[in-house]
Amino acid sequence: MSALAYATPRTGSHPTLTVDLGAVADNTALLVGRAAGEVMAVVKADGFGHGMVDVARTALAAGATRLGVTSLEEAGRLRAAGLRAPVLSWLNPVDADWAAVLELGVDVAVPGREHLDAVVRAAPGARVHLQVDTGMARDGAEPSRWADLCRAARAAERRGLLRVVGVMGHLACADQPAHPANVAGRDRFTWAVTTAGAAGLRPVDRHLAATAATLLDPRSHHTMSRVGAGLVGIDPSGTTALRSPLTLTAPLVDVRDVPAGCPVGYGHTWRAPVATRLGLLPLGYADGLPRAASGRAEVLVRGRRRPVVGRISMDMAVVDLGADGTGAGEVVTVLGPGNDGEPTVREWAAWSGTIEHEVVTGLGARLLRTVCPAGPRGL
Ligand SMILES: *Cc1c(COP(=O)(O)O)cnc(C)c1O
Questions:
Q1: Is 44 known to be catalytic?
Q2: Fewer CB in a 10 Å sphere around the end CB: N or C, the chain?
Q3: Residue 285 is a catalytic residue
């Protein structure tokens, strides 16, 4: 046996992140049912930390028709995995490897003239989605530059240098349906499509909604929704029961009995109020347990919630096990769907003062990953 093989982590003795693709399949099917048009499965950031290729395959099998990513590198990984579905990549530098667009057979978003010129030069004939800023001042062309971008794109299209197949926008406040930015964003998107049409463009894919707007605002649906968070059980709209695919477990490395008053961890931020047993969890902020959750987080031990005490450190956290005799090796559930009383991703986000997206995308590369397949659907 090689030295490496001796160190190979095993489930049960190593922190393990389990991804239930059945949950991804169910969430996809629900969102496909809600969307007026097609559903693009957004699998950026390694499928929101759930495994890009697994989430992509699962979502396509459950009714999504396309894939969306930020970079061309991510698009390349989808193609390398054998996925042939349409892919859109929407965040690339001006000097990206645009030739890959044709090699990979993917669509790209174009937010301005510089990108347009670069794509035409390096990838003549590319399929592009013109991207308009619908009110975030983040990505996409500013309204004052939109008509010019449309005219330039149409001129290139006439010369056979590209095909404008889509127009895309993105809403800033879709999780707050009464926010005036939603009406403004929808109106600006409609104006952008009309302006593109006036320039002679005929974009067949017109897409504005992400998860929140797909669930809350049918007027934003147009021909396609780009859905990411919802696939992995995050509901920014607060209206819909989605399934959470992740379970994180870890065995206690060690336990110790401490007297009342014993200080714990960096900075001595917690002292045992009574004599108790402490357990050492081999997980810390380098694995994605947010340090900001120190002093608030809980985990499930033998069916009971137990507090994480003291500061969460880089590789470790300490759990107050109380007096029920828990020993080293006991497998603790750090987070999961919540069905057995374990903390959820939503709770970890609340304890950390952040959103679920940041928690799931932060769960680190050191975790052993196991995948539960979705199984055949429609049976
Ligand atoms: C991430 C992203 C999405 C997906 O948003 P969710 O809220 O996660 O569904 C859609 N469009 C763009 C441009 C994005 O960056």
A1: yes
A2: C
A3: no
